[in-house]
Design goal:
Blueprint (H helix, E strand, L loop, with lengths): L2 E3 L19 H9 L3 H5 L4 E4 L2 H16 L1 E3 L5 E3 L20 H8 L6 H12 L11 H12 L2 H5 L2 H10 L4 E2 L4 E2 L12 H6 L11 E2 L1 H21 L2 H22 E2 L4 E2 L2 E2 L22 H4 L7 H4 L33 E2 L2 E2 L9 H17 L8 H14 L1 E2 L2 E2 L28 H8 L9 E4 L14 E9 L2 E8 L10 E6 L2 E6 L5 E4 L25 E4 L5 H5 L16 E2 L7 E21 L10 E8 L2 E6 L9 E20 L7 E8 L2
Antiparallel strand pairs: 1-19, 2-16, 3-4, 5-6, 7-10, 8-9, 11-12, 13-14, 15-20, 16-17, 17-18, 18-19, 21-23, 22-27, 23-26, 23-27, 24-25, 24-26
Length: 671
């Protein structure tokens, strides 16, 4: 093996041994995202590889991320879990906190830092983290800092993070020194502890248990708070959280590890239950037992690494299509308890859940990256399971990640309207930190260790490239070309910083490069003045047809996507007469720009044939913009005019013959 660290690697202006194998990001964005390409072009890190399925899912997952960015106007953006409303969300925002770690984990890799930054601010400064579910959000905020290096951004909400951590004392058993939770509030209803606590009759509620999940989350959050407190110069707080993390780690290892099952398991916490006893261990293995590895709680010890045998055992947790959430020998494995009408509802007693699949793949990546005792886990297995997970995103030829899947067939189980393009998991973070091997750090070092097997392995990749990846204020690129034939820039692994090659080795392996951090770019925050989350309050929409209040409101609810499975926005009635959609702002507002998002499907919906923007002055509508170009289908049409004070705005348009118009979102800006 030969490795070369080029002289001056920490400097931006170093020379490259060979020209970088740059990707044509403009062409890729156009191919992957069509007319919506401008949203992605300067925001996402680009990726390509010898596996077209992983590539397709990678870009689809950025579409999922984009679709779940809800614009709250002056409050910024939040990330949603369901694209539309569900009863148990935090109203009126449609936010939930259980998948916040995945949302931030994916968003930390965007070059536009606004979305993760706004979301963190909402969760901590606006009460978004209401502890509806367990979460590892403080850990994910620290994880974001490891990528962007923004010290102020990481510490901005430290007092609130500290406060929320202490609120979890209400789920802390001081006798046992461990946290407990009802599985439903761990976002995992119908698990072994809750089903058994019901005597096998139900399991939606109840079943409080000391779980590997909540204790791993609180360990990770404590460790993150210790790191942030130390960075802020608060030594006593850092020491306190270090002690908390250490104590939790020792108690998880001592009490939640089952020698009998060779697995991390729940213990029942219910003190008055006719079916289970307090502190009694559950009787079957669950996928949740691997969560301690996701947060590096587990020592490098063959005793613990042996647990991974069960993940690969078809008689235990290895389904044909993916990871079972409980092993097949469980008495109530795959018994369906809960329905919405006649449709099966969410359960965790066997189905594949992308939520936990993501967590387990993160844990496996940690194991492979720096543990000597990996049990049966290999890089080949990691890639096989990553590919298996990627395959779940496909419903036939169509990409659509859903809630849960049958472990033998890979077919969706819940399959409700709300389930389409469900953002309850991660994928791109796995690609960048695992497959590509970027291991973010707090110091001024870029570490890369791709988790690919050797070239002779059927799970290997002959080549890949990740480009425009943000890291500590720089843009980095990682390229692998096994024999040099794909990119023609030499054999092996190469690393670039700001377009200059800084390291190269001819085989797969770890590379560590000094990279001095620089200031991150300022975040631009244009404010959408048209958004309204509460129906009946200003701004208020109105329309010439299809005047159902919900239909009208959907065009100003801050949600923008173009998935045909999920109708979104105001849909007009087909008509040869001119149509309109108007927004009453309730007061004069300085405006100079609009964004129109039109959906078209080549069937019933098409963009308008002609259109204009009007404002209400002196008791009548007057044109303020009469664009000559056709509006964009399934993308953003940007319209500008000289700044005006306006209280009412109207889109006036003529429809394409025989087609209706769907206005997915109508935004107004003062700049």
């Amino acid at each position: 093996m030969k490795m070369l660290l080029l002289a001056g690697a920490a400097m931006v202006g170093i020379g490259a041994a060979q020209p970088p194998a740059a990707m044509d990001t403009t062409a890729i964005a156009a191919r992957r995202f069509g007319n919506d390409a401008p949203w992605y072009r300067d925001r996402i890190p680009f990726f390509e590889s010898a596996d077209p399925t992983i590539d397709a899912v990678y870009y689809y997952r950025w579409q999922v991320y984009r679709a779940h960015q809800r614009d709250l106007g002056a409050e910024g953006y939040i990330t949603t879990e369901f694209a539309d409303d569900v009863d148990w969300q935090r109203h009126p925002y449609a936010s939930l906190n259980d998948a916040s770690g995945f949302h931030i984990g994916e968003g930390r890799w965007l070059n536009d830092r606004r979305f993760a930054d706004d979301y963190i601010h909402f969760m901590y400064a606006s009460g978004g983290n209401d502890r509806h579910f367990t979460d590892h959000m403080a850990d994910s905020v620290w994880g974001r800092y490891l990528v962007d290096g923004d010290r102020d951004g990481a510490l901005r909400h430290l007092p609130v993070m500290n406060h929320i951590y202490r609120l979890w004392d209400d789920k802390f058993d001081f006798d046992k020194g461990l946290y407990f939770v009802e599985p439903l509030l761990d976002a995992t209803e119908y698990t072994v502890s809750s089903i058994d606590a019901s005597g096998g009759k139900d399991g939606f509620r109840g079943g409080d248990a000391f779980r590997p999940s909540v204790n791993a989350y609180m360990f990770a959050n404590a460790r993150a708070l210790a790191n942030m407190a130390a960075m802020a110069g608060n030594a006593s707080m850092a020491a306190d959280y270090t002690a908390r993390a250490d104590a939790l780690q020792q108690r998880v290892l001592a009490h939640l590890w089952s020698e009998k099952l060779t697995h991390f398991i729940d213990r029942h916490q219910s003190r008055k239950n006719e079916f289970v006893r307090y502190w009694e261990p559950i009787r079957n293995r669950e996928l949740v037992g691997y969560l301690p590895w996701m947060f590096e709680l587990v020592p490098d010890d063959p005793k613990y690494a042996a647990a991974w045998t069960h993940l690969l055992d078809p008689a235990s947790l290895a389904g044909k299509a993916g990871m079972r959430t409980v092993e097949a020998s469980y008495e109530y494995y795959m018994r369906q308890y809960r329905y919405l009408g006649t449709a099966p509802e969410c359960q965790w007693n066997g189905p594949i859940w992308p939520y936990q699949t993501t967590q387990i793949l993160h844990g496996m990546a940690n194991l492979l990256d720096h543990a000597r005792a990996t049990g049966p886990v290999t890089r080949s297995i990691y890639m096989r399971l990553l590919r298996q997970y990627a395959a779940l995103h496909y419903q036939g030829e169509r990409l659509d990640i859903e809630e849960d899947y049958h472990p033998e067939t890979g077919k969706p189980i819940v399959g409700l309207d709300r389930s389409h393009h469900y953002f309850h998991s991660g994928f791109n973070d796995l690609v960048l930190t695992g497959l590509v091997g970027i291991r973010p750090r707090a110091d001024d070092v870029l570490e890369v260790n791709p988790l690919l097997p050797d070239a002779a392995d059927p799970q290997s990749l002959a080549w890949f490239r990740a480009q425009d990846v943000p890291y500590h204020g720089h843009k980095i690129a990682v390229t692998w070309d096994a024999d040099g034939s794909h990119y023609g820039r030499g054999q092996g692994l190469s690393i670039e910083v700001d377009g200059k090659e800084v390291a190269r080795r001819d085989t797969l392996g770890r590379v560590e490069i000094p990279v001095a951090r620089v200031a991150t770019p300022a975040i631009a925050r244009p404010i959408n003045r048209a958004v309204q989350l509460v129906r009946g309050q200003f701004p208020i929409g109105s329309a010439s047809s299809n005047s159902d209040p919900e239909n009208i409101h959907d065009a100003i609810d801050g949600r923008t996507w173009f998935f045909p499975e999920l109708p979104n926005g105001w849909s007009s009635a087909p008509s040869p007469t001119p149509q309109w959609y108007a927004i009453d702002l309730g007061k004069p507002v300085d405006l100079a720009r609009a964004e129109l998002a039109f959906f078209a499907d080549g069937k019933g919906f098409a963009v308008p044939q002609s259109y204009r923007l009007q404002a209400w002055f002196d008791g009548a509508w007057h044109d303020i913009a009469t664009p000559k170009r056709s509006p964009v289908a399934n993308g953003i049409t940007d319209i500008r005019w000289p700044r005006l004070q306006i209280s009412k705005v109207r889109l006036h348009f003529t429809q394409s013959r025989g087609k209706a118009t769907r206005l997915a979102e109508f935004k107004l800006f003062g700049e």
